[in-house]
Specification:
Elements: H1 9-21, H2 23-31, E1 42-47, E2 52-57, E3 60-61, H3 63-67, H4 72-75, E4 79-84, E5 93-96, H5 97-113, E6 121-125, H6 130-142, E7 145-148, H7 155-165, E8 169-173, E9 176-178, E10 181-183, H8 185-193, E11 201-205, E12 219-221, H9 222-226, E13 238-239, E14 243-249, E15 257-262, H10 263-278, E16 285-288, H11 295-307, E17 311-315, H12 326-333, E18 338-341, H13 343-350, H14 355-358, E19 367-371, H15 377-387, E20 394-397, E21 431-434, E22 446-452, E23 462-463, H16 467-475, E24 486-490, E25 496-501, E26 505-508, E27 511-514, H17 515-523, E28 528-538, E29 542-551, H18 559-572, E30 581-585, H19 598-605, H20 622-629
Parallel strand pairs: 4-17, 6-7, 6-8, 7-14, 8-11, 11-12, 16-17, 16-18, 18-19, 19-20, 29-30
Antiparallel strand pairs: 1-2, 3-13, 4-5, 9-10, 14-15, 15-23, 21-22, 22-24, 24-25, 26-27, 28-29
The protein binds adenosine-5'-monophosphate-propyl ester (PRX).
């Protein structure tokens, strides 16, 4: 058995070399560090022309035995989860590994009592309370496939995700606290369930105690169901390639993509990357501020840290409530050692007085991290100076819902960080830069399209119900490479810097938003003929959305219509997809084949109109001038 943790730059170089010379041998050794019910027969089998990837073939396991049972003997009383409430007056929860194990087993029995069997899909639409962690792990315990939908999504978005996966049970709550607001989760879920015939039961957690409507054919109370069960629940035997969860992410066209992650490879990679990037050490308190509704929450609040036997903090609230010192207050209160957040949050907090930071003791911090979008130089330095006090390395972790775990990142105190660069690949990850013809660029210092050359264990195996789309999106642009949709540059030392998306996805506040679904929502308005969405730079959010909208009757353009369009987006997708700017136009710049030239719209939205390139090939070149003249 080899040790999981890399401990020096030389060690990283040596391990990395080994991992790419013989990936199967390498991952075979790493996987030995986990609890398997039956050892795998073959480490890797893949063919990306199909595409198909299988890791740890015929291996049997249950991820919750790795996250819970195996820690019981030595660290049963150690805190597994510290839950910090939205309201600082409410008491935090400290859940030990023993307690977490018991609560997961009990809730797994609740699921069973409500008809859930291995392979069923369970939708989880819940606030950031400890029960969401328990729900996720309880599904994994019995082999049900969880599909967590972020609690900020609308009823239409929730219904689409439930229907896509044909979920049998919904886990939700009466409401959720977020800052000064309450999200009426049950009410939103009720609306969604009107169009979700696959749902046979809805198990409702009481959190806000607000009044809700009740459908006795469907709804049962979480706490009442718990009274009916005991806390003994053996872990279901899962094949390494059985589905563990589905998590939806936006695409450049059509419906959200239900990325499917499997049990064995995901567990191995989420854990290995967690330990190495953060250099988590026994006894540390680690805090990732993400929501469990995103992949970051799955891999690096729950599975990676728990399989490592770590103490992981879960936060119900937002960075601005009750004031802008909330993150730092929590860091002091729980003596946080590793802190992982999004550049958007850093930029938002950097706008406020340093007194919000300096009021708290941050001396326990050892490692800082960022995820979800490129971090700009200014935010990096603010984070480094004011939070890390120039003594904490910053791991800028590039990865995706699809990759399951961090792909390019420095390893804290092991490899060097560099402002605005995600830096180096993790062991087993083989990034390359391609030119537009799809050839690998051999020079070290270069800019191009980022692609990955060889499978790694936590690659999503398919898009739920649509393997063809999986192939088209990730494996067709460049044969035999995984194509993540990002551009990157590489410096002379081989450090990667992610430059942004190369497709029609915009990253707003670290959230991946496809332009197509938002356009579809806008187009549903009776007065709208067509629309086009692009991103433009925003100081806080990284990017904000700019909509160009064509109306049947230009005279109908009004401030009220702008509001209505944003309300429609909120209803169809969720408030995160609202547009900061909406411009009514009489036409859109299109190629002769009818494709919208988003490049031009992006430049106009960014007020970068000096070089729009050749517009003469457009179907309607004059429209460009009109759009520029009336831009916001
Ligand atoms: O464009 C990249 C950006 O976020 C995308 C993935 O989004 P999602 O699947 O929602 O996962 C976010 C959390 C892992 C990527 O294709 N992105 C993610 N991390 C970084 C980043 N861009 C630059 N630097 C990063 N560290």
């Amino acid at each position: 058995m080899m040790s999981l943790k890399i401990n020096s730059l030389e060690n990283y170089q040596e391990v990395y070399q080994r991992s790419i010379e013989n990936p199967s041998l390498f991952w075979n050794e790493i996987a030995e560090n986990f609890v398997w019910k039956k050892k795998w027969k073959k480490t890797l089998e893949y063919d990306w022309s199909i595409p198909e990837t299988k890791w740890f073939l015929e291996g049997k396991l249950n991820i919750t035995e790795n996250c819970l049972d195996r820690h019981l003997e030595l660290k049963g009383d150690q805190t597994a989860i510290i839950w910090e409430p939205n309201n600082p007056e409410e008491e935090a929860e400290h859940i030990s590994y023993k307690q977490l194990h018991r609560r997961v087993c009990s809730f797994a029995n609740v699921l069973k009592n409500n008809g859930v069997v291995k392979g069923d899909r369970i939708c989880i639409y819940m606030p950031m309370v400890s029960e969401i962690a328990i729900a996720v792990l309880a599904c994994a315990r019995i082999g049900a496939i969880h599909s967590v939908v972020f609690a900020g999504f609308s009823s239409t978005a929730l219904a689409a995700r439930i229907n896509d996966a044909q979920c049998k049970v919904l886990l939700t709550a009466d409401g959720g606290f977020r800052g000064a607001k309450i999200t009426p989760l049950k009410e939103i879920a009720d609306e969604a369930l009107k169009t979700c015939p696959s749902i046979k039961k809805s198990i409702v957690l009481q959190r806000t105690k607000q009044s809700i409507s009740w459908n006795s054919n469907l709804d049962v109370w979480w706490h009442e169901e718990l009274d009916k069960v005991d806390d003994h629940c053996p872990a279901e035997v899962m094949d390494a390639e059985d589905k563990l969860f589905i998590l939806y992410t936006s695409g450049s066209t059509g419906n959200p993509k239900g990325m499917v992650h499997t049990c064995g490879g995901y567990m191995v990679y989420a854990t290995y990357s967690f330990l190495n990037v953060f250099q988590y050490t026994e006894g540390d308190v680690y805090w990732c501020t993400a929501d469990i509704g995103w992949i970051t929450g799955h891999s690096y609040i729950l599975y990676g840290p728990l399989a490592s036997g770590a103490t992981t903090v879960m936060f119900e609230g937002v960075p601005s409530y009750p004031d802008f010192g909330r993150f730092w207050e929590v860091c002091e209160k729980h003596k946080v050692n590793q802190f992982y957040t999004a550049p958007t949050a850093i930029r938002a907090l950097a706008k406020h007085s340093l007194s919000f930071v300096n009021a708290y003791d941050l001396s326990n911090l050892k490692v800082l991290g960022t995820v979800g979008e490129p971090i700009n130089e200014e935010a990096w330095h603010w984070y480094n100076e004011n939070i890390g006090k120039k003594k904490c390395p910053i791991v800028d972790t590039w990865w995706q819902t699809e990759t399951g775990g961090m792909m390019i990142s420095s390893l804290a105190n092991v490899t060097k960080d560099k402002p605005t660069f995600a830096t180096v690949p993790l062991p087993g990850i083989q990034p390359v830069l391609l030119n537009t013809e799809g050839q690998e660029i051999s020079e070290t210092k270069a800019e191009g399209i980022l692609a990955i050359k060889h499978p790694w264990p936590s690659l999503a195996r398919t898009i739920y119900g649509d393997h063809k789309r999986y192939k088209n999106v990730y494996f067709s642009a460049y044969a035999n490479y995984y194509f993540p949709g990002d551009g990157a540059l590489r410096d002379k030392d081989g450090n990667y810097r992610i430059t942004g998306r190369v497709d029609d996805v915009v990253i707003v506040s670290g959230h991946n938003l496809g332009t197509a679904p938002i356009e579809n929502a806008i187009n549903e308005h009776d007065l709208v003929i067509e629309s086009a969405i692009v991103g433009f730079p925003d100081d806080i959010k990284g990017n904000a959305l700019y909509a160009y909208v064509i109306l049947y009757d230009e005279n109908q353009a009004s401030e009220d219509l702008v509001k209505e369009i944003n309300q429609l987006i909120s209803k169809k997708i969720g408030p995160i997809a609202k547009c900061d700017k909406i411009q009514f136009v009489s036409g859109l710049p299109k190629t002769r084949s009818g494709k919208i030239m988003r490049r031009i719209l992006r430049k106009i939205a960014s007020n970068d109109i000096s070089n729009l390139g050749d517009v003469s090939t457009l179907l309607n070149p004059l429209i460009v001038e009109e759009i520029i003249k009336n831009r916001h």
